[in-house]
């Protein structure tokens, strides 16, 4: 029989699991809609990771004593080193920085739109899971929710890496002289070694 739980913790767990269930459904739909096989694979893997994490949460709220370790293992696909800088030409001949207007009529969803939605599901999921976790006194609920935030972080980075490789998410590069000037603004604090910091 489970112990006593604060009402807000049970509500947070319910909200988190309900949202995780919706994300799993969305990821499975994205896997069907995507035309790029790599994006399909990412959506399928992320849906499976979501199912695994969801099931841990169900076991936890049902008070099962032998809930497996909280940390969901996820092997992220990466697509090489991040590409910095704006390309000379964006997708479909557009200039860098140009964003196409949203489609207002029913039309096939593009891989770029799917990836963008997947990225934002995970980015905002990370914020929500961490916020829920920080509000929990129950250590198992807290660990589960913070683990959910960490999982979202991994999933978001995987989608971002795909988008960056495809040219969907360009990252402006800072000039090296500005980087060096910025880095010189910070110095080590004296006395750090006295506290056991190296």
TrEMBL record:
<keyword id="KW-0167">Capsid protein</keyword>
<protein>
    <submittedName>
        <fullName>Spore coat protein</fullName>
    </submittedName>
</protein>
<dbReference type="InterPro" id="IPR012347">
    <property type="entry name" value="Ferritin-like"/>
</dbReference>
<comment type="similarity">
    <text>Belongs to the CotF family.</text>
</comment>
<dbReference type="GO" id="GO:0030435">
    <property type="term" value="P:sporulation resulting in formation of a cellular spore"/>
</dbReference>
<keyword id="KW-0946">Virion</keyword>
<dbReference type="Pfam" id="PF07875">
    <property type="entry name" value="Coat_F"/>
</dbReference>
<dbReference type="InterPro" id="IPR012851">
    <property type="entry name" value="Spore_coat_CotF-like"/>
</dbReference>
<keyword id="KW-0749">Sporulation</keyword>
